[in-house]
Amino acid sequence: MALIQYKLVLDKKDGYSVTRTVLEVDKGDRIQFKSNVPNAAILYQKDPSFKGSKVPQAKVAFPVGNKGIKGPFTVTKTFTRANRVMFKCGVLQSPQSPEYISGASKPPKFVPWPGKGQGTPDLDL
Fold this sequence. Notes:
By secondary structure, this protein is mainly β. The chain has one domain. Helices cover 0% and strands 37% of the residues. The chain contains no helices and 9 strands. The strands form 3 sheets. Strands 4, 5, 7, 8 and 9 form a 5-stranded antiparallel sheet that branches. A two-stranded antiparallel sheet has the order 1-2. The chain has a two-stranded antiparallel ribbon with strand order 3-6. The chain is globular.
């Protein structure tokens, strides 16, 4: 099972806070995505090792917004900080979008959000 760390901090000024960090994801664990952006998508840099045919793949934008497949996806190998798998978050612009240069049979364009991305598991900060 996944190794999850909860960090409890007491600050005299701001009170307390609790942050969650996933330190390890094991074979058989499940991951799912959720977004309030209808055309949200993710793009893994390398194989995220999910079981099944309709799962995120390396270097292929995968919709996770309102109409996307959000999971849960079953992990097929263990990930730690040493072998974590990174993904970018962003949106898919359809060929009908004014920002998208329309052309015959072009797939939607993945536009990443600013930042360096996320990973499985999280970085232990």
